[in-house]
Design brief:
138 residues, mainly beta, ten-stranded mixed sheet, 2 helices, elongated
Length: 138
Amino acid sequence: METQYYTLVEKQDFYEIIENKYGELAVFIDARPGTPVDPVLEFDGKETALLKRDERLAVRLDNIDPETKNILAEREVVLIVELTGEVVERVYGVPVENVEEIVFNGRQTRADELIRAKSKADVINSFGAVKTWVGGQK
């Protein structure tokens, strides 16, 4: 049963993308808590990518270098390296999905976060309600 009642999008202020001699790409970002579940990197072909770590947390990468965008658009998989300072917390491969546009739905709570609340029906469904009672003034 799904128990996530919101989706959080964090903006990564500083990140690095490197290419090795085999043409493989690695993206270095800040470590986030928890293990990624079915992560994927969406790329709009312009200057923004969205790393969907799991169904709750996504990391937005803005201002992708113009030289990098063509290389990234051609890749099927990239390596994500999550760091705490200089210490590697985890490394994992993610598929790259080229999309026409990345849409950020949500409410900005800080400079680097957007929260998108699910609908009332989504919360009720996630909660697994079997009965509903209405109260209040008649």
